[in-house]
Design brief:
This protein has 177 residues and is an all-alpha fold. The chain has eight helices and no strands.
Length: 177
């Protein structure tokens, strides 16, 4: 079963990865991946502070709690599973960016992007579709750039969304009540 899933994972990876020849996509996906590094996520809090001051404080609490729990648990998960990255497992795969850590599952960029998308969707629902679309693009970029398998992206999306939901629940039911 595990071998069959790995074969399917590799086939999907190769289908996405092989689109990078002779197109502008490498530049686009590098930019998306860079934005997914998290440098711009704080802009949402600046937006809330100046335009929706009433939800700034709960959103700040949720974001801080979500990342404070997501990051250490993510590291434990990643270092427990220890999945080898595609470019390290297959000689024919060349990575286009250098990952921040050694292992592949789950995708940290995707986890963070879906965590932020879930929080933004909760506090500002009109931004839900563009934020989840962006989170999906972050995940796709990590496959395209050769550093993650599709199942790493799915795992990161589930993990990030779940951690955001837990943080929202804790802040709204326990901390703010």
């Amino acid at each position: 079963m595990k071998a069959a899933v790995s074969r399917i994972d590799l086939k999907i990876f190769q289908a996405i990865f092989n689109f990078r020849r002779n197109t502008v996509l490498p530049l686009i996906f590098r930019i998306i991946s860079f934005i997914g590094d998290g440098y711009f996520y704080g802009l949402y809090l600046v937006y809330l502070y100046f335009s929706k001051h009433d939800i700034f404080r709960p959103a700040l609490f949720v974001i801080l709690l979500a990342f404070a729990t997501e990051l250490p648990l993510y590291r434990v998960l990643k270092n427990t599973i220890r999945r080898v990255r595609p470019f390290n497992a297959h000689d024919e795969i060349e990575n286009m960016v250098y990952p921040l850590d050694e292992f592949s599952f789950p995708s940290g960029h995707t986890s963070a992007a879906f965590l932020v998308a879930m929080i933004i969707a909760h506090f500002t629902p009109f931004l839900a579709i563009p934020m989840f679309a962006f989170a999906l693009l972050v995940g796709m970029s990590r496959i395209y750039l050769g550093v993650h398998y599709p199942s790493d992206i799915i795992g990161g999306a589930i993990y990030g969304t779940g951690m955001a939901q837990i943080a929202i629940l804790i802040v709204e039911k326990i901390i703010l009540n």
